[in-house]
Amino acid sequence: MKIEMAESLFVSWLKHCQECQIVQMNWKPSISWLHSGEQNDRSEEILHTIYEKVMALDENILSKSSFKQVFSQAEIDVLGISFSDNEFTLYPVDVAFHSNGLDYGGKNVNVLKVVQKCIRAAMCIYRYFGDVKTEIIFASPKIGKPTVELINTKLAEITKILESVGLIQFKFSLIANSDFSNVVSDIIRSSSSIADTSELTVRAFQLLNITNSIATVKKPKSLPIENSSTAIYKIGFVIKHKLVGLLTSKSWSAEELQNMQDIAYSKEKFGLSGFALLQKSSEKPARYYAEPIEVNQQEFYVCSEWYERSRSLVLEWIKEHS
Fold first, then answer.
1. Other Cβ atoms within 10 Å of 130 Cβ, number
2. CB 135 within 8 A of CB 174
3. Region 72-90: what's the mean pLDDT?
4. Which residues pair with 175 in a beta bridge?
5. Could you tell me which residues come within 8 angstroms of residue 203 by beta carbon, excluding any fewer than 6 positions away?
6. Domain extents for the chain?
7. Which of 19, 141, 151, 274 has the maximum number of C-beta atoms within 10 A of its C-beta?
8. How far is it, in rounded angstroms, from Cα 155 to Cα 32?
9. Cα separation of 265 and 258, whole Å?
């Protein structure tokens, strides 16, 4: 059995950082599945329009494949599904781990190959899942800056094609270089608390850690407010790693801590219906993370009911208090 460590890494990342309840490696559609076009002629019409517009943009993007081949040749390295707020988000991820940097055969070929994988994933997701919130990710540890810029330019053009047919919930993200390193660091930090022996990359990190073969990755005292990698993380991960990181990294005045335990302040500043913080008591209250945090030598529970609509408020608050 062939084991792809980079794919295993993203299985763990989707489960523990993107909070995906379902994750599958090597996802491929079955020929027995009904697709949206068999139930909705409009959906199939949209897919044909996407195909024609992509071929008109550059026929090499799909390697001159026929419409049928786009689906028969498609395979997604890792597919994650996250359920939250009565809706679900799909995370199709393709990973390329080339020791000397991304190399499918030159810069132009690299760009075409990445874009090809992304558009095939988008068309497959739409055909079999419909118009749902989807974050299509291509990941590679090392990609040259000129290639990154060309890939982003092409993906922006593909995004416009999707938007032109009404698919506005599909987004493309490139995780490479420092962003890829951040994914590795996040999993190393989380590995000590993960007990699933099927997650091979995590098991490898655990082995290296107990033999002191890798340096411990510490949470940075100063976290970036917003960048290309934090933008794709779910709000729960932002709270645990950015807000909590800030709260535990400095001293706070009594007034500031009291504000965080005030319901009106929590609603105004974070869009919460409850308290952002609650001082630890004998029993953990419902809707708060199980492990308390220590601030000013006191222990507090952090609210666990955060929603994506609060992201901008949270990041603004972090920025103001950093």
1. 14
2. no
3. 88
4. 139
5. 197
6. 5-179, 234-321
7. 151
8. 31
9. 9
Count of Cβ atoms closer than 10 Å to residue 26 Cβ: 12
Q: Is the pLDDT of residue 220 over 50?
A: no
Both tokens assigned to 163: 């938007």
Check if the beta carbon of residue 275 is closer than 8 Å to that of residue 261. yes
Residues paired with residue 139 on neighbouring β-strands, in sequence order: 95, 175
| DSSP three-state, residue 172 | strand
Instruction: Enter the pTM of the model.
Output: 0.69
Distance CA 191, CA 123 (A): 34
Contacts 24+ apart (CB under 8 A), 198-204: 199/8, 199/11, 199/12, 199/15, 200/3, 200/5, 200/8, 201/5, 201/8, 201/9, 201/11, 201/12, 202/8, 202/12, 204/5
Sheet with 134-140, edge to edge strand ranges = 22-27, 76-84, 87-95, 134-140, 170-176
pLDDT band at 125 (very low <50, low <70, confident <90, very high): very high
At 240, the pLDDT band (50, 70, 90 cuts) reads confident
Q: Does residue 70 carry a pLDDT above 60?
A: yes
pLDDT in tens, 196-215: 667 777 777 766 666 665 55
Q: CA of 205: how far to CAs of 18, 91, 124, 213, in Å?
A: 19, 24, 33, 9
Please provide the CATH number assigned to the domain covering 5-179.
3.40.1350
